[in-house]
Amino acid sequence: MTTTNLSQTSTLGMPPALRRAQAAIHLPEVQAMLQRLSEFDLGVFMPHQHDERTGDFQPLPDDVMQVEAGCQVSFQNTQEIVNQANRFLPVAWRWQAGAAVPASVCEMVVPEEQDDPGRPVKHKMPAEH
Fold first, then answer.
1. Three state DSSP letters for the chain
2. Can you tell me the distance from the alpha carbon of 30 to that of 106, in angstroms, rounded to the nearest whole number?
3. Distance between alpha carbon 3 and the CA centroid of its chain, in Å?
4. Is the pLDDT score of 120 beyond 70?
5. Stretch 84-93: mean pLDDT, rounded?
6. Distance CA 111, CA 19 (A)
């Protein structure tokens, strides 16, 4: 089996919480958690966003969620997304206030017949030009 290592040698300039996250992936207990998660086809991610002006890494605030729609990523108020639950599929979670909460979602195509559980789930794609 081939493994991929994209580790950066420096996390200088990152906030302490994100530097800690980058270092933690190499800890045996985190590796064990990742191995266990893989049994459920899950992985690990570092909740973050970027400063719109500088591109600097920033921790993802509790009230912000990463949203992928039309193959573009944005960061939106969590409450706005939660209020539109039928349009968004959670794809990443984090632990907050004693529970797993979505941290990232994909916008889905809303089926015309929402009561049909047999309809396939499809990601919203960019509008054709």
1. CCCCCCCCCCCCCCCHHHHHHHHHCCCHHHHHHHHHHHCCCCCCCCCEEECCCCCCEEECCCCEEEEEECCEEEEEEHHHHHCCHHHEEEEEEEEECCEEEEEEEEEECCCCCCCCCCCCCCECCCCCC
2. 26
3. 22
4. no
5. 90
6. 41
The pair of three-digit structure tokens given for residue 32, joined into one six-digit string: 């064990």
Q: Which residue has the higher pLDDT, 17 or 12?
A: 17
pLDDT at 85: 82
CA separation for the pair 24, 88 (Å, rounded): 30
Residues 11-29 have a mean pLDDT of 93
CA 107 from centre of chain: 13
**Measured between alpha carbons, how far is 82 from 86 in angstroms, rounded to an integer?**
9
pLDDT at position 71, please? Answer: 86
Are 79 and 58 in contact by the 8 Å Cβ rule? The answer is no
The Cα–Cα gap between 48 and 5 comes to 20
